[in-house]
Structure to design on (120 residues):
């Protein structure tokens, strides 16, 4: 009987360890929601650059593309992270944007600060 209960305890420990490892791996992956926001911003940024090259800064296409890119970037800034994967990917992406000098509006900082607040 002792042998069997020892075997069961080992099996339960292995199962719990496997579940914990899987949970850690899943938490390290960014969420689909954040991935979608980042992909949306990349698309909006590409459209903005295209509008700049094709029409210049004096067109309605440029203005609309600029507004859309800003909305997409603010959405990422405002995204409340809950996992390590989201935290890492959001910070990494925003640091890339900031390195280009494009994380410069007060709305960006306000959205970032609001995203760090937890509501209970």
């Amino acid at each position: 009987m002792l042998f069997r209960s020892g075997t069961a305890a080992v099996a339960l420990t292995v199962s719990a360890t496997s579940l914990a490892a899987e949970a850690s791996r899943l938490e390290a992956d960014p969420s689909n929601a954040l991935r979608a926001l980042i992909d949306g911003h990349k698309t909006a940024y590409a459209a903005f650059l295209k509008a700049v090259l094709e029409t210049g800064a004096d067109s309605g296409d440029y203005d609309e593309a600029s507004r859309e890119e800003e909305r997409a970037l603010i959405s990422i800034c405002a995204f409340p992270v809950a996992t390590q994967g989201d935290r890492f990917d959001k910070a990494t992406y925003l640091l890339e944007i900031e390195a280009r000098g494009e994380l410069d509006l007060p709305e960006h900082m306000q959205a970032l600060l609001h995203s760090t607040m937890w509501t209970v």
